[in-house]
Amino acid sequence: MFEIVEKPLNLQFPLGHHLHCMVSQIPNHLGMADFACRLEDPEEKWRQVRSILELIAEGAGNLKKCHFLVLPESAMPSARVADALELIDGGFPANTVTMFGVEHVRLAEYRDFLQEHAEDNAEALASVLKDLDSGDIEDIPVNWAVTAVKEADGRLRVFLQAKSHPFVGEESLDSVHDLYRGKVFPLFRCQPVCFNFMPLICLDYVYRDLYQSNISAIIEKANELFFQSRQRLDLLVVLECNPKPEHPAFRDVVNGFYGEYLAYTPGVRDTITVFCNTSETTRGLKGSETSNFGYSSVIIHKSHKIGPVEHPEFASDDFGGLPVCRLRFGTRTRLYYFNLPLFHELDPRTTRVPLKIHGIYQPIGESWRRVENEDEEE
Q1: Is 108 exposed, middle or buried (0-12, 13-18, 19+ CB in 10 A)?
Q2: Of residues 306, 317, 305, the one with CA closest to residue 254
Q3: DSSP string covering 258-324, please?
Q4: What is the rounded CA–CA span in Å between residue 54 and residue 303?
Q5: Alpha carbon distance 351, 346 (integer Å)
Q6: Which CATH number fits domain 3-370: 3.30.10.20, 3.60.110.10, 3.40.50.300, 1.10.260.40?
Q7: Distance between the two ends of the chain, CA-based, in angstroms?
Q8: β-strands 184-192, 3-11: how paired?
Q9: Residues with Cβ within 8 Å of residue 82, at least 6 apart in sequence
Q10: Closest to 100 measured CA to CA, from 146, 62, 33
Q11: Please, what sign has the CA dihedral across residues 30, 35, 171, 3?
Q12: Cross-referenced InterPro entries, in alphabetical order (predicted)?
């Protein structure tokens, strides 16, 4: 069962001003080993990830305002998680949130990571220990993600979550091809400025059966927040390594999330959904040769009234007639830096666009350079 656990955070975001987010659309080079999906070039991958972390730590120009850094599913070598957390702890400013997916590890290894950060992961650790006690599953692979939060007082907090979707075992009679199914998912509630956000891993966004659905559980929780405290789910982040990021299943969920007409859903109506996918040079997933990685995107409700735009690096549309405004990026390896719109609707008389691109960065050697002809936005 999909359990949402509230996690309070001390983050002093600017009051009444938009926040900033960087989406890292970078490639994964994957391979299967012992029924797990792992990075083929972990050291080269770590150098790329470290260059992104160092870019944010340096905070040149408008990057000093970055509040959320997002890297895709399976982007981090498991052996370098501690190094990444050390860099974030020592180099990132206060009030920053970093979300990244990690390559597969054995369930026993995932338990060890949870125990290392047990203070922030009590519910997830208890769930894993209970599952380990139920059978011989220590070697089952885990697809997982980390949310590292540098709080206002400089304290680093580390939260882990395991993907709930069943991976290739859904299409195989052989159970050893299956993934561990995570059951505990954090909902982060920031104070003193109220801001609520939640990360998911790829197909967790669409996972459902006839009796339950991850996304319906999230909507119900967000509605509960609204009716109890008049707060909402402000941000939903989906970490992907997906050759079909615009699959009809994703589109159906987006439509239901923002366009439900049979029941009013005030808890998610103003939610910003960020999809962070890998770039076009990703390889190693079976059956992905004829599909396209990339197309990370930002989706908000149609009430924000963003008109259609075409640009070499991005475009805006309504996702084929859905009740949304979508900012859709390309397929190349890029860092996209943009603002998160304020939760409230704009005055209908204004001409101001609530979502703006502040910068797009391309890889140059082992560093990143801003794509030319991009005007700096403050």
Answers
A1: middle
A2: 317
A3: HH--SS--TTTTT-EEEEE---TT-B--TT-TTS-----EEEEEGGG-PPPEE-SSEEEE-TTT-SE
A4: 37
A5: 9
A6: 3.60.110.10
A7: 43
A8: parallel
A9: none
A10: 146
A11: negative
A12: C-N_Hydrolase_sf
Domain boundary assignment for the chain: 3-370
Token pair for residue 291? 């599909």
Span 125-153, average pLDDT = 94
Q: What's residue 377's pLDDT?
A: 43
How many residues are given for the chain? 378
What percent of the chain clears pLDDT 90, i.e. is strictly above it? Answer: 72
CA distances, 368 to each of 12, 148, 159, 280 (Å): 29, 22, 28, 18
276 beta partners: 239
| pLDDT of the residue at 170 | 54
Helix (H, G, I), strand (E, B) or coil at 100: strand
Amino acid at the residue 269: R
Mean pLDDT over residues 260-264, rounded? 75
pTM over 0.85: yes
* Cα 109 from Cα 114, distance rounded (Å): 9
Dihedral angle computed from the Cα positions of residues 21, 186, 236 and 238, in that order, rounded to the nearest 10 degrees: 80
Phi, psi of 372 (to 5 degrees): -65, 160
Burial class (CB within 10 angstroms; exposed 0-12, middle 13-18, buried 19+) of 218: buried
For 191, the token pair is 């104070």
Residues 6+ apart with CB under 8 A from 27: 278, 279, 280, 281, 282, 283, 293, 333
**Looking at per-residue confidence, does 221 or 305 come out higher?**
221
3-state SS, residue 80: helix
Residue 199 CB contacts under 8 Å (≥ 6 apart), including other chains: 99, 145, 147, 161, 186, 236, 237, 238, 239
Task: Tell me the C-alpha distance between 81 and 75, whole Å.
Answer: 11
Q: Which helix (H) or strand (E) holds 21?
A: strand 19-25
Task: State the angle between helix axes of 248-259 and 214-229 in degrees (0 to 180), rounded to the nearest 10.
Answer: 20
